[in-house]
Amino acid sequence: MLKLSVLIMTALLLQGPSLESTNPKDRQAAVEQMARPGNTEAIPALTSALKKESKSEIRAQILSGLVRIGGSFIPPLLAGSLATDLDKDVRLQAVESIQRFYIPAGDTGTLQTLFNRAKNVVASPQRPAPATGVVLDKVATDALATAMQRDSIEEVRAASARVLGNLMAKAYVPVMITTLEDPQNQDYKAVRKEIVMSLGAIRDTTAGPAVQKTLRDRDAGIMTESIITIGLMGYAPARPQLEEIFRTDTRREMKEQALESLAMLRDPGGKPLFESLIPSTNDYYREKAAEGLARMDYDAAPLVETLKTEKKANVRNAMTFALVSSNHDDYVNELTNALNSRQSAQAEMYLFELGKYRGKINLLNGYLRSSDPKVRAGMARILGRIGDPSSRAPLDELTKDPNTDVMREAVNALRLYNTR
């Protein structure tokens, strides 16, 4: 009899944790054990458990586990939880899990949910993006659009709007515009702000008129994001209103954001304002004015004399950007040398634009042979993002570079080529 009891206990132990256990920790352990990449055989059991699980944190864990398993069956399951779960945090987990399905994050080894970590990746200030060629499941994106419009909790609505932008869901721009303009949503500031930011990420100019209406929104946060979004989408018809904000708004932040947005528009109509600001005593104004001139058909030759007396590094970089943009290529050295300076991020942005939009790829390729490893590494990173075929061979040579940082950037750059 004793021997039989031992055998029964051994069998129970060998079974491991179960989704049917009355102990929540056992159910959590069972989800963790079953949620292995590619273990599609576990999907039916996890789906069944999701429907009857009483604890919200375990339902959230199941959603996270389904994403780890992967497969075409997962997005509709996530959409179902977003549409029907009564717990706000589980619905937020569904929103985040939809994003993670299409934009995978690093796997820490333990299933991550809103319940066992401090930060929601959906709320991160960094906007991730799906890989090229990713096809979104309409059931999942429809669920996000519905939640953005109708969920009872503003946080869920705002998160859904943000993820539509992160997923670059251009097909949902019309419904985002409708939600933004709906008078009933005036008090849903977080939702409207996320919609404006997502429209800026998607950069569809058909949303320009709707965003332009919010340039004087009574909420300062929405107004700020609207100013930025107009610049990101390059909606030139809003230029006069941006110039008015720059000239008349008494808030420094609004003036600076308006000028930055103007500098992104590539609208020749902004030339008089930019030229008037080149002699300004305000460093930021000079920098953005030079940037704005660089992005239009403008001969920056007059800046040669100005550059001789300019002492601020950020302004010098912007003026050099303008000169190289107008084919004064001899000035590119100063800009590439800035890759090994405190202004390296600014220099990277300008050099990327010169290669991507101003036909300077061959000029940049030459700096992959720079004697400065920081310049080689920075240029490898830039050219990897641009992805021009002419850069592949010289980047391949850098994979044998004696400097570890240079070699790593070259390998990462070539990896980007392979994902296109």
* End-to-end distance: 66 Å
CATH topology of the domain at 14-116 and 136-169: Leucine-rich Repeat Variant
CATH superfamily of the domain at 14-116 and 136-169: Leucine-rich Repeat Variant
Which architecture of the domain at 14-116 and 136-169 per CATH?
Alpha Horseshoe
State the helical fraction: 55-70%
Structural class: mainly alpha
CATH class category label of the domain at 14-116 and 136-169 = Mainly Alpha
Low confidence ranges: 4-14
**Radius of gyration over alpha carbons?**
26 Å
Number of helices: 24
What's the shape? Answer: flat
Structural commentary:
The chain is mainly alpha-helical. It has a domain at 14-116 and 136-169: Leucine-rich Repeat Variant. The protein has 24 helices and no strands. The chain has helices at residues 2-15, 24-34, 43-52, 56-69, 74-84, 88-102, 138-150, 154-166, 173-181, 189-202, 208-213, 220-233, 239-248, 252-264, 271-277, 283-294, 303-309, 313-325, 332-337, 344-357, 361-365, 373-386, 392-398, 404-419. Helix 4 runs parallel beside helix 6, helix 9 packs antiparallel against helix 10 (189-202) and helix 12 (220-233) packs parallel to helix 14 (252-264).
What's this model, at a glance?
The chain is mostly helical. It is 64% helix and 0% strand.
Q: Key terms for this structure?
A:
420 residues
List the helices and strands and how they pair.
Elements: H1 2-15, H2 24-34, H3 43-52, H4 56-69, H5 74-84, H6 88-102, H7 138-150, H8 154-166, H9 173-181, H10 189-202, H11 208-213, H12 220-233, H13 239-248, H14 252-264, H15 271-277, H16 283-294, H17 303-309, H18 313-325, H19 332-337, H20 344-357, H21 361-365, H22 373-386, H23 392-398, H24 404-419
